Amino acid sequence: MTHAHAAGGGAAGRTGSDGVRAPRAGAYSTWRLEWWDGAQRPVRAQWCLGRLASMEEEVYRAVSGARIALQRRQHSASCREFSVRCPRLQLRSLSAATCSVWLAAYGLFVLSQNSMVLSAAIFITLIGLIVYLHFVKIDQESLLVIGSLGIQMTSSYASGKESTTFIEMSQVKDVVINEAIYMQKVIYYLCILLQDPLEPHGVSEVVPLFQSSKPRLDCLVEVYRSCQEILEQRKIETSLELQNKKLKIEKS
Amino acid sequence: MACRRIGSNRRTLSPASSINCVNSLASSIRTHSICMVSDFFYPNMGGVESHIYQLSQCLIERGHKVIIVTHAYGNRKGIRYLTNGLKVYYLPLKVMYNQSTATTLFHSLPLLRYIFVRERVTIVHSHSSFSSMAHDALFHAKTMGLQTVFTDHSLFGFADVSSVLTNKLLTVSLCDTNHIICVSYTSKENTVLRAALNPEIVSVIPNAVDPTDFTPDPSRRDDNTVTVVVVSRLVYRKGIDLLSGIIPELCQKYPALHFLVGGEGPKRIVLEEVRERYQLHDRVRLLGALEHQHVRNVLVQGHIFLNTSLTEAFCMAIVEAASCGLQVVSTRVGGIPEVLPENLIILCEPSVKSLCDGLEKAVAQIRAGTLPTPETIHNKVKTFYTWRNVAERTAKVYDRVADEAVLPMDKRLDRLVSHCGTVTGYIFALFAVLSFLFLVFLRWMSPDSSIDVAVDATGPNGAWTQQYFPGKKGHEREKISNC
Lengths: 252, 483
Description:
Chain B: Residues 217-363 form the Glycosyl transferase family domain. Chain B: Residues 71-160 form the PIGA GPI anchor biosynthesis domain. The structure holds two protein chains of two kinds. Chain A is an alpha+beta fold. Chain A has two domains: 53-89 and 137-251, PH-domain like; 91-133. Chain A has helices at residues 2-13, 91-112, 116-136, 217-251, and strands spanning 24-25, 31-32, 44-47, 54-61, 67-76, 79-85, 138-146, 150-157, 162-168, 172-182, 185-195, 203-208. The longest helix of chain A has 35 residues, at 217-251. Chain A is elongated. Chain A starts with a helix and ends with a helix. Chain B is of the alpha/beta class. Chain B has two domains: 30-208 and 391-450, Rossmann fold; 218-384, Rossmann fold, CATH 3.40.50. Chain B has helices at residues 21-27, 47-61, 109-118, 132-144, 161-174, 185-195, 240-253, 268-277, 292-299, 316-323, 336-339, 352-368, 374-381, 387-403, 409-419, 422-445, 474-477; strands spanning 33-37, 65-71, 78-82, 86-91, 95-97, 100-101, 123-127, 147-152, 179-182, 202-204, 226-231, 257-262, 284-288, 304-307, 327-331, 345-348. An eight-stranded mixed beta sheet of chain B has the order 3-4-2-1-7-8-9-10, with helices on both faces. In chain B, strands 13-12-11-14-15-16 form a six-stranded parallel beta sheet, sandwiched between helices. The radius of gyration of chain B is 24 Å and the shape is elongated. Chain B starts with 20 loop residues before the first helix and ends in a 6-residue tail after the last helix. Mean pLDDT of chain B is 86; it is low at 1-28 and 468-483. The chains are: A alpha+beta, B alpha/beta.
């Protein structure tokens, strides 16, 4: 039922004919529906998955202009997950790259009359593709914030490889949006400030988030707000705990 | 306005006659989004740097949005915020010579365009003719159709090869700039001649000093002796060779005369030789390089300030010295005669004899006790040059410029060809066309709509001036650039 509802909403909001993509198994063994809006405005879909966490998905733009999807799952009040999905490898760009390598190889072959060039080109394309999928192309970056535990960042490569980093909550000083000069652009990015163990007000390191997808400011602000809510809750809890401890010490 | 004096070939720059700041703030409804561009900015120290900083602060106070663009200084790169939300972009461009970046007229376009678009800049204000980044920014701003203002801080010759080349470049750069600001009438004359400009688009707005930084303190002086203070870089242009002639002559005549020299430079060796030869170690003290905040402490130890510059557009040092209550003796060169009224300064020709006469006159006045007290001099000088006044006058220039139209491409090409000589004109017209094509390409690669609008720190929608700093949103502004 939820399925039909979402699809209906999508059809109403859709102006282009990019089409509804095939449903694909999600990480939580539910059906996830993706579609892309022809216009630039984000399409909002929201449905509840019964006993599972509530989930929202919105379409934003990356700094490069590519469309990205931000998915939010609220597991509980102090535990949220954000994942940014980049567009998958396009058949068009793949074939363009392959064609250019092969044409160049063919040109060399005509000049040098050495057939080794052609087989080398095939191997170069294959190895290049494997390296690209395994080490470069990131399909999804997710951020799991658990108020009492810490922040976990996962990036999954197109080949299925995943790399995960975890930062303990006591190390996290804050989550902020920062500006940086990147290539020939000036971009906003979200980052985690790590507490300097020696100095109480110092920052020892800045860990950038969503490094490969590089969402634009409107998307970052959404994630930032949610992160701040959780961090705020945690601050209140810790201060309450401290007060309780003090009270206990005073009583004893 | 009592100090304004016209005639005898001498114009005193109109002083700030107690501007009512509240009124002027209320009446200035028009606000601009200004981008200051120069190669020279803090942490580099100097006149241009402090001019840009102080002017920006006063413009922010008047409600304008101001950002500064400069090149990266060592580890200081990326985006930083200074007092009152003044945003500074330190761009990673290669430094070529004397803190000035290399210029190709093209390589900085992508970044500068991105900044102009994301900050919604309306007026580009470049500083200093030595800064190639300032010229680049003017060139790109005109290609993008933004209003441009240029401030010239220095005087130039016409004779040697380097000046001829720089003057040609300046002609090209300024021929289609909307408005030019000079720091003194002499500097205006010089710039108009060098760049073959229409004098009507050149305004004179002097520099200013912060009078609260330069207050007199007579208790620090030793009244048994007469101390002459010299604070300048020890280079040829500042007339250090003249100083080395003056020192032995006057020290022989007046046994109670002491010299205090602050500053560093290649000519220091000349002064050291003089000190050695005439055995003046106890009377001539060389302090070496001074930081700006220590200058006042040196100034207040003296009675007379001596400036021996051979060329100067607007001498800040003599205003600072007069603000500390010293009697100023200076050479009559460049814009110096315009800076202070006659009763506060003794002007001499740039020769050893004339300067010695001037110093003797000053010593005689001190001996006779006819000089006004440091307090009265300070109170007089502090009304002359204030940054608020400079900002008010600059804002008027912005208002005027904002109403003007930017030359469209065809007229700009015409102007370049007709104004800058045939060869140079056609070469730069070609550059202008190429840079326009490059801009079209960049607009296709990353359209303006795909560029995030930056969060304003200053100006009418400034997040910094709305006082919700301690709140949650404050974190968004707590930005530590590392890239």
